[in-house]
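Supplementary notes (optional reading)

For those who missed the lab, this is the record we used. Protein: Cytochrome b5 heme-binding domain-containing protein. Length: 435 residues.
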Amino acid sequence: MAKKLESSIPGMRYPSGRDHFLKTAWGFLEGRRKDDGAEGLWRVHDGLYDLESFAATHPGGAEWIAMTKGTDITEAFECHHITDRAERLLPKFFVRPATSQRSLPYTFAPDGFYRRFKGRVREALKNVDYHRPATSSKLIADSLAAMALATAVAAAAYKSWSVLVLSSIFLTWTVIIAHNFFHQRDNFRMYYFDLSLMSSKEWRVSHSLSHHLYPNTLWDMEVYAFEPFLEFLPRPDKSWPRRALSLLISPTVMTVAYFGQAVKRYYSILCEWRSPELRDLVPFLLPAAMSWVASSPSQGLELWLVLIAASSFIFHFVGLTAAHHHPEIFHDGDVCRKDLDWGLMELDAVRGRRLVDESLFLILTNFGSHGLHHLLPTVDHAYLELCVPAFRETCREFGVKLNASMTSWQLIRGQYEQLARAEPRAENFHKTAAA
């Protein structure tokens, strides 16, 4: 039996959900219920709260509350609420102090990096309705979804492989931009994500409540869900054959990932959540439409399978090379900074991309503005530019240098270098940041 990894972040425990055999969102949440000391309630810092009666009126939607019952929601509570309204409302639901220490060591000191930054963001966004998506983001998302559907139907009707390639690009862009919306309060555009076979509900957990809150750590589902095929964390027992195999099979893993997530999705619906929803029918819209117009249903299904495989490869290639994996970016196992402020820890695990971060269209369709998005996940990408002055001012105050952006090529190459990296970094390199 392989030895369990130990985090290099002082005070971070090994998450029970990491050992779930299918590594589903349900498994992550069940693990947290074992680890977090929330006693069937909702934990925020060192207090336990009963949010049951509040779920139906939660502005972000009841799902966020219902899914997280019995877990520690401290990091999500802090970064999902920009104003202090939630903080003022929370004491109404207080039950009792927690009796155990938190499983995670992150801090949110009033005079720390993240709280200072968030205070400045409130001022920067005071003239926009940042609780709702921007009109420009909605228009781009709707246009891409329409083009994805139109080109998929055209490819099936005329059996055009070139149009199918174009459709795979539109579908990928639609799925990526949908991620902007499932971070926010419930809305129909988040279901564009489900056209891919992947689940917006699962990703609200694996992406929003795991990866976003604990990037490149033992708690990051977008790291451990790929194991043992792709191993991003440095570890001395990562032998050369294992590293070489990761490099060789990574294109295949990216191509079949949508299908793998579909298996997990419907297993989880039937055996874990046991509550099918209307969104679980969305993945069948494209194959139904393509089979309807194709010369035969089997041909429509064949073209759809190719479309899904192509989109899966593009989505995961873009996602895995977007911001996180490079030998110069912190991964659990590397020397950790002494200041465990959550905002600073986020910045250690992310880099910006030149050119991509200069265009709203590219930002929305290529996981751009990654640093600011991690710090402000519920703020629409179109509004993040307004937060740049606040970000720069806070970085200057805390001595964080603003020169950490990389080119797309550096991050593409760096992802493969990271897969091949076995030795943790011994020196402290937590000095830079990029929006």
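If you only remember one thing from this example: The beta strands are 42-44, 47-49, 94-97.
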